[in-house]
Amino acid sequence: MRYLILEDEKIASNRLKEMIANLRPDYKCVLTLDSVESAVISLPALKLDLVFMDIQLADGNSFDIFDQIKFDVPIIYTTAYDEYALKAFKSNSVDYLLKPIDPVELARAIDKFEKHSVKDDKDVTELMQALKPNGKERFVVKVGDHLKSVITKDIQLIYSQDKGTYLFTREGKRFLVDYTMDKVEEMVSGQDFFRISRKFLIHIDYIKDIIAYTNSRLEIRVDHFDDEQVIVARERVTDFKEWLDR
Which CB contacts under 8 angstroms, 24+ apart, belong to 64-71? Predict the structure, then answer.
């Protein structure tokens, strides 16, 4: 197996390499990197089976890599921070290990990689729900000079428009929030909300109708929302149907 270590602390990188060598002498460390920039440059040209990736790097966050290059190699995250677990499980994650790395946990992570290569969507969903089963209960939004609490269960859909992210409630009201769509997706419950496209997150309880649309897509109707059509992206249709039928 050919693997790479992305870690900005040299001591941590060497220790991890030594631990892997003890567990899997046949594994070959192709390269060690310490920054987002070096990863973006080097990863596309490398043939790898596995990556051990820290999250906080010398020049930023390792998730920035996915915004710049296409990268689908299985990843075992090694980090001192637990708040990125949800995002990690959506980015080719095999496992998420907290520093200092425990040799037993590392061995289990490698075993998991060898048995499954990379988690399928069902595993990812279950892991995300185990970490945060109920999701965010309410959002605080600004209305003029006032603050208002919007209960998440009252939100029919969440959408992006003109670089802003909006909550649309069952009363037909909309509120701007200070989060990106990606961040909101991490915050809400995957049992209740589904990301049907880059633009829309839909709440299962407020789907009024589902209609066949062009190019194998689906159109969703919700009460009061008539700004534009709510379309399930073609690449999300299968996952959406499975989410509905769970």
Answer: 64/36, 65/36, 65/39, 65/40, 66/91, 68/36, 68/40, 69/40, 69/43, 69/44, 70/44, 71/43, 71/44
